[in-house]
Specification:
The protein is built from 14 helices and 12 strands. With 395 residues, it is an alpha/beta fold. The strands form 2 sheets. The chain has a 7-stranded mixed beta sheet, with helices on both faces. Strands 8-9-12-11-10 form a 5-stranded mixed beta sheet, with helices on one face. Helix 13 runs antiparallel to helix 14. It is globular, with a radius of gyration of 22 Å.
C-alpha cells in the first residue's frame, strides 16, 4: 500500500461506527463496566491498551495513534499535549538519574532548556554534539553511562541533515536508545525505523495537523522501546483532548496532497530567494548545492515547506528588516510552522549552540530568517516577497 493510501485508511473502522468513515469524537472520563467481572478485568488493562478510563485513551485517540504508527512505520504511538511534551516525555522514558545523554547541537531550543534545566536537576548529564559528526567522532563522546542518542534532522533553524543510519548504527551496536525529532519531514517523508531509530517524535501541531489550530505531540516506538514509553506515559498521565485528536486525524487524511504542495512551493520560493542580491545563502536540504542535499536524497522521500535563508548584515538593520516583514500580505510573523498559511520570522541560531559555532566555518554570517511555506500559490508568495525586498532596498 502506498503512503497516500495508507494516510487515508489507517485507523479507520467504519463497520464499528455505524458506517461513518470518520472516527466519532468520544467525550469521556468515566467508562462504565457491565458487571463485577468486567470491572476486575479492566483493572488489569495497561495504560493505553483499552478504553477503560478517559485519560488512558478513547476510540478517537487510539485511531490517531494507529494512523501515525502505520505511516511512520513504528510499533505503537502514544499522544501527548504538545510537541515539547513529546520530546520531554520521551527523554524521561529512557533516562534515569546518573545517565548520560548525547543531544544534537541543532535541537529545538525548548529541548535544550529541558536538558539544561530539569534533566540536570534530575541528575542526567547532557553532552551536545555537532549535528554533522561522523560515527567515529560520535564514538569518542560515548560514556559508560550513555543511554540516549538524540537526533533532529534537519535542525528546524539551521537545517543540517544528519547521517541518521550511520549514527543510529553506533547507538544500536552498544545498546543506546536512538531518539529522533522527525517533525520537519513528517511521517510521510522520512521513515525513521527503516534507518535504525528506536523512537520517533512528532509535533502533531505541525504537518500532521496542518491547519495551525491545535497543539499536540506524538511519540512512536519500535517493539523493543515501546514498553518503557507505555510505562512512562502512564506514570506521567499524558493524555489529549478528544476534539484535538479528531482535528489532527482529519488533517492527517490530507497529508499526502498537502506535503506535495509544501515541497514544490517551498523549492520554488527558495529558488527565487537565492537570486536576490541581499540573500547570502538559502538553507534548504531539498535543493542541489545545499550541504545536506546528498544525505537528503539518499534518506528522505521528500522535503517539507520549512527552510531558511541568510540576509546580509547591511540588509538586516532594524529599519530594513521591518520594511521587509511588516507589510507582507501573505506571510505572517508568528511562531510555529507547517500550517496552511505561510510564515517568516528572523532567527538567531547563535543563542542555541553549545558544541558548534553559528555560522559554521566557511558559511556566510548574517541575519538568519526562517520561512514556512503554506498552501498559497507560490507565484503569489514570490510577488509578496518581491514587494517586500523592494521596500527593504528603499528603507
Amino acid at each position: 500500500m502506498k503512503d497516500r493510501t495508507r494516510a487515508t485508511v489507517a485507523g479507520r473502522r467504519p463497520s464499528a461506527q455505524h458506517g461513518a468513515i470518520s472516527t466519532p469524537v468520544t467525550h469521556a472520563s468515566t467508562i462504565l463496566q457491565p458487571n463485577l467481572a468486567a470491572w476486575r478485568a479492566s483493572r488489569k488493562v495497561r495504560y493505553g491498551d483499552g478504553v477503560t478510563y478517559g485519560v488512558h485513551g478513547t476510540p478517537g485517540t487510539y485511531a490517531l495513534e494507529e494512523a501515525i504508527a502505520a505511516l511512520e512505520g513504528g510499533h505503537r504511538t502514544r499522544l501527548c499535549q504538545s510537541g515539547l511534551a513529546a520530546v520531554t516525555g520521551a527523554l524521561l522514558a529512557y533516562l534515569s538519574a546518573g545517565d548520560h545523554l548525547l543531544m544534537v547541537d541543532s535541537c529545538y531550543e525548548p529541548t535544550r532548556r529541558f536538558c539544561d534545566g530539569m534533566l540536570r536537576r534530575l541528575g542526567v548529564e547532557t553532552t551536545y554534539y555537532d549535528p554533522l559528526i561522523d560515527p567515529e567522532g560520535l564514538e569518542e563522546l560515548l560514556q559508560p553511562n550513555t543511554r540516549v542518542l538524540f537526533l533532529e534532522s534537519p535542525g528546524s533553524l539551521t537545517f543540517e541533515v544528519q547521517d541518521v543510519p550511520a549514527l543510529a548504527a553506533v547507538a544500536n551496536d552498544i545498546g543506546v536508545w536512538c531518539l529522533l525529532d522527525n517533525t520537519w519531514a513528517s511521517p510521510l517523508f522520512f521513515k525513521p525505523f527503516e534507518h535504525g531509530v528506536d523512537v520517533s517524535i512528532q509535533a502533531v501541531t505541525k504537518y500532521i495537523s496542518g491547519h495551525g489550530d491545535l497543539v499536540l505531540g506524538s511519540v512512536t516506538a519500535n517493539k523493543a522501546a515501546y514498553p518503557r514509553l507505555q510505562k512512562c506515559w502512564g506514570e506521567l498521565g499524558h493524555s489529549v483532548g478528544p476534539d484535538d485528536a479528531y482535528l489532527a486525524l482529519r488533517g492527517f487524511r490530507t497529508i499526502g496532497v498537502r506535503m506535495a504542495h509544501h515541497e514544490a512551493a517551498g523549492i520554488q520560493v527558495a529558488d527565487w530567494l537565492e537570486g536576490q542580491p541581499e540573500v547570502l545563502e538559502v538553507m534548504h536540504p531539498g535543493r542541489p548545492g545545499d550541504p545536506g542535499h546528498a544525505l537528503w536524497r539518499r534518506d528522505f522521500l521528500g522535503a517539507s515547506g520549512l527552510f531558511g535563508f541568510v540576509l546580509a548584515a547591511e540588509a538586516a538593520t532594524d529599519a530594513k528588516l521591518a520594511a521587509l516583514v511588516d507589510n507582507l500580505d501573505l506571510f505572517g510573523l508568528g511562531a510555529s510552522w507547517a500550517g496552511f498559511m505561510s510564515l517568516m520570522i528572523p532567527a538567531d541560531p547563535r543563542s542555541n549552540r553549545a558544541a558548534t559555532p553559528w555560522p559554521r566555518p566557511g558559511r556566510p554570517n548574517g541575519q538568519a530568517m526562517r520561512v514556512s511555506i503554506g498552501l498559497e500559490d507560490p507565484g503569489d508568495l514570490i510577488d509578496d516577497l518581491r514587494a517586500g525586498f523592494e521596500r527593504l532596498r528603499n528603507a
